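Re: export button greyed out
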Amino acid sequence: MELVFSQLLDGVSIGSVLLLAATGLAIVFGLMGVINLAHGELMMVGAYVTYVVQNLFKPLGEGLFQLYYPVALVAAFFVTAVVGVFLEKTLIRKLYGRPLETLLATWGVSLILIQFVRSVSTPMVLGIGVTVILGILVNRYLPKKIKSRPFAPYLAGLIWTASALLGIVTISAITGIGNRALNKPWFGPRNIDVTAPKWLQGSWGSIAGIELPGIRIFIIILSALLLLGVAWFLTKSVWGLRIRAVTQNRQMSNCLGIPTDSVDSITFGVGSGLAGVAGAAITLLGSVGPNLGAAYIVSCFMVIVLGGVGNLVGTVIASMMLGIIQSIIGSGSLLIAFPDMPKVAAAVVEFFATTSMSYVLIFIFIIGFLQFKPTGMFPQKGRSVEA
Amino acid sequence: MPTPILELQDVSVDFDGFFALTDLSLSLQPGELRSIIGPNGAGKTTFLDVITGKVKPTKGAVSLRGESILGLSEQKISRLGVGRKFQTPRVFNNLSVVRNLEFAAAPNKTPFHLMFETLTSSVKDEVYRIMDYVGLAPYAKVEAGSLSHGQKQWLAISMLVAQAPDVILLDEPVAGLTDDETARTAELIKSLAGDHTVVVIEHDMEFIRDLGAPVTVLHQGQLLTQGMMEEVKADPRVIEVYLGQSDDH
Amino acid sequence: MKLFRKLVPWILLAFAFFVLPEILSQFRLNLFGRYFSLAIVALGIDLIWGYTGLLSLGQGIFFALGGYAIAMHLLLVTKNDFTTGANGLPKFFENYGVDNLPFFWEPFWSFPVTLIAIWIIPAVVAGLVGYLIFRNRIKGVYFSIITQASLMVFYHFFNGQQKLVNGTNGLKTSTTELFGMIVGSDDAQLLLYRVTLIILPFAYLLCKFLTSGRFGDALIGIRDDEARVRFTGFNPVPFKVIVFLVAGGLAGISGALYTVQSGIVSPQYMAISMSIEMVIWVAVGGRGTLIGPIIGAVLVNYLRSLVSEALPEAWLFVQGGLFIFVVVLMPDGIYGWLTKGGAASMLSAFGIAKRAKTYPSLDLDEQVNLEPKTITPK
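Workaround output, generated via the alternate export path:
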């Protein structure tokens, strides 16, 4: 009984992490039809923001340090939300209505984010600064006469290329000075560790003799709160109403004076911000690195497909289900709980009793499930679903 | 009375509590031409969806030549001889006009036939005859995507003819056409009736009158009335649903 | 002129077959051999994505299956100190205490069986996976997501099964023997390079056959408007299963050729990134054309080698930028851009070439026709 309960708790907490990660993705996918493969990398950004905030709090002394985590959560949300809004305004906007294209383009974004985190250093930031400032300024103060010529778009491309080259020159010039401290990458390709504040470490009491590990309980509560927040935001707030209006009829919303552009940015920003919070939560579970995203993205999409697109309840049930299955199968605890099961069953359980094999089982389960319910547990209905 | 070629009995379609069709019954005789009108949301398109297998009715029976076609896939119903033109002219934009028609006219519709079998000359002749008839012959090698709206409408109707179905369902065949084109389309449709059973859904009353066929009026998923255009036009219920002259609201 | 354009690919092929081995170093030639083998998997992706509209993110499954098939055969038949363990089986089995060859590897003792298995196993797996997905009318992004999930099933399975397939380490072929030559040797690699160049045109012709006739029309119809195809009386499922199966078979052949030329097959071939990269080769070259994927696979991989050799850290930036650039600014890819007059319009923008006086395509464009005749400037 104890074993089952603790496995369940484990499963629910794995499910909560999935839920945190999948909620933002579900919003972006369900409401905007954007397949954001960079979602995992936005989580990674959130994790690194947590790391930075932690380091900023370190010199402040033990007392204040205990408070860094809530600050980090908020910071992670806003930094990733800003990154998301930037992405929406520059890239995603051009690809609405073409989900497969968003998939490929956001994969490109994810590659850039991964490498950026690995190799970002002071010279690089300066170089990027030079590129951006030059690119914007030159393009902006180009004589009007030239701007109206047919080759203007190509020229703008050339200017950006030239600015990028100058940026690279800047980087190598600064690197060439040879100041080791200056050239050192900020994070590097290695994993980073975040220390959980004391109040999260250890146990938060026990129920029926089972310890309640603080971190896990905290994550469960955090994901529940965030989910409620998202549900409130989408159903009760003004912006939520606008978002749903735009989802249902973009042109009509436009005519009614809803600023659809801002709605798009805010939707994508909120989705990205949630990824950031998920990333901040993951730092509590162990060390994180630039490749953090890849581990979560496929599972997140599975949660959405299984739950039914555009349905938060479905997302919750699906993520809990996957979390619990993974924890129970992956740990092989069925063998301990039922020691005298038939040999064949025991062999099967043992076969799948590793983390990677439990993934195999879960994915097979989902693909099997979709044979009977191709649109997930809670499908959308009506004439408009299939054009 | 001969067996109707197409018959719907007490068909209801329920989209999560919203009844798109309620207890609709309708039957069509072979060779008949029938117009269907009704205000927006009357269930006209859902009616076609039910016949062509896109939407499964919540209750009721649909039969073709006396045999039930309920639960069959779209392609099976199509092969049984029911062809449909959609509200917007859906043609294959990246194929040439002649290839669009040859695709529709293919007598055998399996992958292996398409891979290894060449079209017989009689099918090809038929395709050219149809193109000549609708005036698309000069555009035979042109990609369908670059045709004008009216030409696309005709191509879509031509594809139906090439498919040689017994029942032709036309959803707004003259939407967006000029008056001249509309008149010619009416001629085309009248010439199809007799050999085929034709159902026309339209908003254009002028056009419906030109067709001179019996009219069925749908309203809120129910059959409101049937009859010739003049009778229907005089029916106070029809006037009410179209003009909303009711005091109840 | 038309004849000349038709001949160009074959001239380039002959050039690659006869001249490149004379002028390139063994190292470069081997790299080009790999690029050409990757062009085969790209052709398959073009078949399903460019022509049929199914974006598969799981081609790595079939690619790796082909690689594992040939690699295990080579490991089994080679008897030398590098590859063979004390029990006469490939060495890695020893490490996990496996004394009997797992039953499913038994057929791979035979060379003919292996040659067939290389494409038939991936094809059958693809057909099965495809049937299960298409049967339920799962398409669009859902198809992509599910193929990616299937990829993860295989990835985790191969990673987790040391005793069957050597887990994360994969199978090394460079020290095995083929026709009495060490596979990693220069002679064997030259032979494999030429074999690749012989198979590539056959793959091209197969795709040409499938896409040019009425079957190809059906594929394009399914891509553009699948529901319409159904209402015309065609069942799209067998069409999709067939192209997915053919693409799977091509991926298997490609994977086998790539494996023997790179010296290893490992679950990394089934990583998410590898399969998405394959898609971008097609996008860069030009989807919906058959020359495009070949150009794309060779060019992108050549670029990768160049950038990685000069500045390894920059490759992900370049690759990421390439994804974004192609999707946003060059959706037709290089070949599509050239054939649709992209180069000409660029030159004319700079005043180098003459602008066309009228725009015949615009006269037929309904959007343009619908616009009011007088458009007042801002």
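Residues 245-249 of chain B have pLDDT under 50 and may be disordered. The button fix ships in the next patch.
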